[in-house]
Structure to design on (908 residues):
């Protein structure tokens, strides 16, 4: 059973009171309880069952402009007393920084709206097992599939965030997710692909048959890939990876990267960064949203933000500390983006595939080849060749490379946006990138 | 005596009784207890940006029968919590019947001292050193745009209680000291990163001003990158420098030789045991026994003493890396490679210090043999798809080679290759094997564990370089 708010509040208050007694001028604390149950299957047999029950306290104490933090999983008061003392001792001897402070009182979240983020339904392990059997049965119908793995995870969380300025808030959230990995084989060579679904409410979960079928279909389609010649070509990003473009944007416009001067988008506010057809929104208040929140990790009210409007960069993602460095107010983005998405494009998926004679269609990238400081980008990739609007053959062992400044300006969006993750993008085309192969 | 049951409502013998009772019909399993203290102190943008102390303690209770693993973990060490976990495990395995394997090798070796690096250096002196790093690097001129430096230190105590009251213990120190510098010249910005670490105290790595060497190396890398040109795109010869570039070995073949992927037949190497998978001069080992190295362990997280496992000998595939579960199912012995990130995680077969041993060629011989190619000196991260065998890693310091001579530095590019075939493309193995500086963390199934790598310079006949210049 997930602990109630009163239990967590009691610990939060204990931490604040004791820190103040020992000399803290300001205190921020978060107390979290989470219970997670996971069952995994492999080749239609139970493989692993895992139950997790975890507590965490994150405490930050301030003495004027000095700051230090502790984290602990042991909620006993005797342990917390010792750690608070240690935290205060460290705070006293940490050099002060004029930008250290709790958020401004008038920015704090005032009311907690029910965003429908908690489903109290408990899905017992027997049910999870039934679900996974269906996933794997559908995934293994084709004889080219030689291995399947599937998992189901149920998470329940409750938390309290509080500070010494009187803020205290928290709420329960839940998450159900399932995934399937399928391995296909032909002539001794293997390929792997997957499908993943996640929802706040059990009733909104993807159907098991759908998860299994998609994973298997994708793994089979990848069989017998070719390595292509190096060339400059238009590259289409499948929906599964196009959202990565938004994650890059989010890192590059975080107030921390901007304040440190280490972003390729520094000084680009109010400049055209994308084509003028593009709008990018971060909306924390979507009902049942996987990235939804009432307030950010400092308790600051968060509202929908247009990060990019008609191609123009309009907002950074600002927290209190880095906001002060930049002389800007927090916009409730301590902890990053919430539900981040491109507004839908106008071209249908089919029209996008037909907009040129030949494209490279990428379904997976590997490696961490993005550099936020310079904007340089180079990653391993696999996918398909598209000729005359049709996916003709699978491609692998190639890289795609470019610079994000150029990539951003050369994006065309399809109109197939789905809100499946916390960050979502439609299929998109980048007019030209360098592909390295043979 | 166990320290974990102090201040709880349960004592060691009661815990042992629960373990023995829970595991009586199982093939394997244990109660794993862990106390983990860690600290992070970060200097960034001229300020101490954060100082954090973490204290975490808990248990992971595991029961294994056949291929099935039942796991339950909690940070509440109490009679009620353990009982609940026990019920949960028994319920998962209720239809199974196994025979407990009591055998676990013993060791008297120790590859590191039981010190707590967090306490063995004062907080003040850590802050002072971070400030000295900042001042030292910024004194190199206005070209220095940003400096980040940090200390990461930890002390982990583990205790493994097996059925029949066998108790195994280990105390593990670990530190890392990192410096990152951003230089700016003519509107161009580049980064250089360097770090050192291992299972000793901070001061073992920082004595006699050697922290300045760490700063100088980060500065040198950033400076080289300021002069970098766009990297070439396409297949060419690649010379890898010694030391840290061995993450190529880690990604390209290390993961593919972990027992679980081979038992499940999802690794591109699963049917290659005893076969030629590399050029003749190539020998690769995974060694958990090197003194004070980041990837070393006295015992692994199942209590098995670590060893030096030969993976590939003169090009022939000899062994996989095994934990107890995969070893049992594959009819072999654990190689002491069973590892977990923490009590919150299940055990998986993992790498420790993965090393390609020296051959007989000099680096100069390799470079002078290349007409057109690149010389890669340092890398950022890498990744592998163990099923298709395709792997990547990205260069953080590399140069073009033209007509046997090292030319201009090139921008960070990803290199991509095929694991099972790459080692057959290794045509020369250098005589200059070097260990990495102690900075690696390996990720698998969402779990990060510290690892080491080592290799000499090597020449690879053909790899795809993912630059922008055709």
């Amino acid at each position: 059973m997930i602990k109630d708010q009163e239990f967590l509040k009691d610990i939060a208050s204990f931490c604040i009171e004791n820190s103040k007694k020992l000399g803290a001028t300001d205190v921020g604390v978060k107390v979290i309880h989470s219970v997670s149950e996971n069952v995994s299957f492999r080749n239609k047999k139970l493989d692993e069952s895992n139950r997790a029950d975890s507590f965490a306290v994150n405490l930050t104490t301030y003495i004027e402009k000095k700051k230090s933090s502790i984290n602990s999983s042991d909620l006993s008061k005797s342990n917390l007393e010792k750690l608070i003392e240690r935290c205060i001792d460290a705070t006293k001897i940490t050099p002060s920084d004029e930008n250290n402070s709790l958020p401004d009182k008038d920015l704090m979240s005032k009311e907690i709206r029910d965003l429908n983020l908690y489903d109290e339904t408990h899905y017992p392990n027997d049910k999870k097992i039934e679900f996974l059997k269906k996933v794997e049965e559908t995934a293994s119908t084709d004889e080219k599939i030689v291995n399947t793995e599937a998992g189901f995870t149920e998470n329940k969380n409750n938390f309290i965030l509080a500070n010494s300025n009187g803020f205290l808030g928290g709420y329960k959230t839940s998450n159900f997710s399932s995934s399937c990995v399928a391995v296909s084989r032909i002539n001794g060579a293997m390929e792997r692909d997957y499908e993943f679904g996640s929802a706040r409410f059990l009733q909104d979960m993807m159907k098991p048959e759908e998860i299994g079928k998609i994973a298997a279909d994708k793994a089979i389609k990848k069989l017998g890939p070719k390595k292509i010649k190096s060339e400059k070509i238009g590259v289409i990003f499948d929906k599964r990876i196009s959202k990565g473009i938004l994650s890059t944007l989010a890192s590059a416009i975080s107030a921390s990267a901007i304040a440190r001067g280490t972003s390729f988008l520094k000084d680009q506010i109010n400049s055209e960064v994308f084509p003028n057809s593009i709008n990018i929104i971060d909306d924390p208040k979507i009902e049942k949203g996987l990235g939804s929140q009432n307030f950010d990790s400092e308790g600051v009210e968060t509202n929908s933000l247009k990060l990019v409007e008609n191609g123009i960069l309009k907002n950074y993602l600002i927290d209190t500390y880095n906001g002060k460095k930049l002389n800007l107010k927090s916009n409730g983005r301590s902890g990053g983006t919430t539900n981040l998405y491109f507004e839908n494009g106008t071209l249908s998926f089919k029209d996008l595939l037909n907009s040129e004679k030949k494209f490279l269609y990428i379904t997976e990238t590997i490696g961490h080849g993005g550099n936020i400081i310079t904007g340089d980008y180079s990653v391993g990739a696999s996918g398909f060749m598209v000729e005359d609007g049709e996916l003709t053959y699978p491609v692998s062992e190639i890289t795609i490379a470019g610079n994000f400044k150029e990539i951003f300006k050369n994006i065309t969006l399809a109109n197939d946006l789905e809100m499946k993750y916390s960050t979502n993008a439609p299929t998109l085309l980048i007019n030209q990138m360098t592909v390295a192969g043979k | 005596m166990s320290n974990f049951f102090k201040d709880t409502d349960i004592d060691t013998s009661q815990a042992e009784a629960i373990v023995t009772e829970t595991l009586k019909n199982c093939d394997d399993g244990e109660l794993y207890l862990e106390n983990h203290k860690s600290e992070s102190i970060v200097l960034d943008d001229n300020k101490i940006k954060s100082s954090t102390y973490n204290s975490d303690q808990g248990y992971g209770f595991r029961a294994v029968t056949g291929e099935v693993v039942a796991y339950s973990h909690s940070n509440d060490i109490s009679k009620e919590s353990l009982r609940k976990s026990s019920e949960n495990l028994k319920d998962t395995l209720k239809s199974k019947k196994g025979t407990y394997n009591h055998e676990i090798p013993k060791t008297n070796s120790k590859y590191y001292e039981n010190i707590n690096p967090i306490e063995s250096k004062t907080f003040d002196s850590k802050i002072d050193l971070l400030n000295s790093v900042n001042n030292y690097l910024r004194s190199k001129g206005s070209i220095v745009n940003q400096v980040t430096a940090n200390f990461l230190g930890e002390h982990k105590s583990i205790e493994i209680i097996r059925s029949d009251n066998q108790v195994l213990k280990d105390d593990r120190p670990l530190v890392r000291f990192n410096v990152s510098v951003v230089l700016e010249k003519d509107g161009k910005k580049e980064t250089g990163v360097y770090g050192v670490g291992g299972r000793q105290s901070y001061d073992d790595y920082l004595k006699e001003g050697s922290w300045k060497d760490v700063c100088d190396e980060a500065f040198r890398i950033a400076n080289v990158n300021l002069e970098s040109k766009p990297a070439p795109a396409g297949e060419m010869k690649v010379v890898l420098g010694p030391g840290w570039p061995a993450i190529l070995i880690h990604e390209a073949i290390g993961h593919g030789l972990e027992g679980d992927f081979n038992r499940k037949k999802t690794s591109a190497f699963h049917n290659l045991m005893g076969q030629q998978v590399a050029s003749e001069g190539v020998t690769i080992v995974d060694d958990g026994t090197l003194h004070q190295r980041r990837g070393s362990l006295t015992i692994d997280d199942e209590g098995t003493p670590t060893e030096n496992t030969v993976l590939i000998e003169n090009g022939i595939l000899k062994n996989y890396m095994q934990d107890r579960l995969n070893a049992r199912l594959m009819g072999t012995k654990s190689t002491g490679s069973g590892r977990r990130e923490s009590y919150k995680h299940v055990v998986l077969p993992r790498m420790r210090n993965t090393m390609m041993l020296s051959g007989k060629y000099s680096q100069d011989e390799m470079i002078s043999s290349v007409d057109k190619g690149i010389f890669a000196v340092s890398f950022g991260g890498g990744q592998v798809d163990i099923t298709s065998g395709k792997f990547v890693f990205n260069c953080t310091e590399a140069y073009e080679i033209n007509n046997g001579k090292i030319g201009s530095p090139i921008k960070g590019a990803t290199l991509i290759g095929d694991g099972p075939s790459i080692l057959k493309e290794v045509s020369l193995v250098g005589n200059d094997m070097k260990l990495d500086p102690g900075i690696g963390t390996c990720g698998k199934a969402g779990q990060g564990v510290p690892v080491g790598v080592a290799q000499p310079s090597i020449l690879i006949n053909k790899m795809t370089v993912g630059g922008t210049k055709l």
In short: The mean pLDDT of chain B is 95. Chain B touches chain A through 79 residues (CB under 8 Å). The radius of gyration of chain B is 24 Å.
